[in-house]
């Protein structure tokens, strides 16, 4: 593996004298040398972590869950359960209420944060909100 490719894999910038071409690994532009360093086979990824090296730790993405907002039709007394119908893990349910419309309830422990419910909501009354560490520790998520 050449030094420019090694520098690119490990996130180091090459010296300015080497120019912009050195910032890309060999074959990144699909040129004549595109298959020259593909020793691992057709499924090899150029950004794969070399053997014995730990993967770079990126910023942690907080877990998100769906939360109904005031614009929800069910909260306004209109029968709509499209979000619950689209929720694959069945985390979005409707709690029956005596003398009124059922209210939407999100079971945070079951919510995968996939966003399928957001796509079908006619009023865009669902938001994905991050679960705080305190709520997760308390058993809410």
From TrEMBL:
Q: Which UniProt keywords apply?
A: Iron, Iron-sulfur, Metal-binding
* Protein's recorded name: 4Fe-4S dicluster domain-containing protein
Classification from the root reads: Bacteria, Pseudomonadati, Pseudomonadota, Betaproteobacteria, Burkholderiales
Q: Does the keyword DNA repair apply?
A: no
Where is the sequence biased in composition, kind Gly residues? 28-42
Q: Name one Pfam family in it.
A: Fer4_7
Species name for this entry?
A: Pseudaquabacterium rugosum
Q: Which InterPro entries match?
A: 4Fe4S_Fe-S-bd (IPR017896), 4Fe4S_Fe_S_CS (IPR017900)
Question: Low complexity compositional bias: what residue ranges?
Answer: 43-65
Q: Where is this region: Disordered?
A: 21-65
Membrane-spanning ranges: none
Report the residue ranges that make up the 4Fe-4S ferredoxin-type domain in this protein: 102-131
Say yes or no: keyword Ribosomal protein present.
no
